[in-house]
Description:
It is built from four helices and eleven strands. It has helices at 2-16, 100-105, 132-141, 153-160; strands at residues 20-25, 35-39, 42-48, 50-51, 58-61, 63-65, 71-73, 82-88, 93-99, 119-122, 145-147.
Amino acid sequence: MKKELSNMTKEMYERCGFEISNLKIEEESREYEACQFELNSLKIISRNAKITPKKIGQFVTFWKRSATGPIEPFHATDHFDFYVVNVNSKDASGQFVFPKSVLIIKGIVTYLKKEGKRGFRVYPSWDTPTSAQALRTQQWQLNYFFVLNENNWLERAKALYVI
């Protein structure tokens, strides 16, 4: 996991002038290389998405352990600014940088009486969803996405990490 974060730091965060601090590895979600950290004082929750063999897109978890034991979706009152999802294919790497406010609107983060999600699919620009729902999801998600080393990726990354 530290290697993955280090690669992302070298490739992107450092080139953007961002500094990582307070890195906390989430052992329970090691499979998704889960961690939390601060990026120039912004609170980040980060996961790597996984390619699944039978569905287009990639799957990522987004839960926390409740005080009483079971897992639960993140809540609007949880202290984070962005949920970052790293995606990879054999030919490309990219990153979704979802602001908490967008995840609340999309029903992924629990707000008031509407429970959020414990996991969801992401659709990078190189995927071609076939269902109408997946296409709609990809359309809004791509507003928060960039492909590493693609034209203007550095400017795009800097623009996404703004509250």
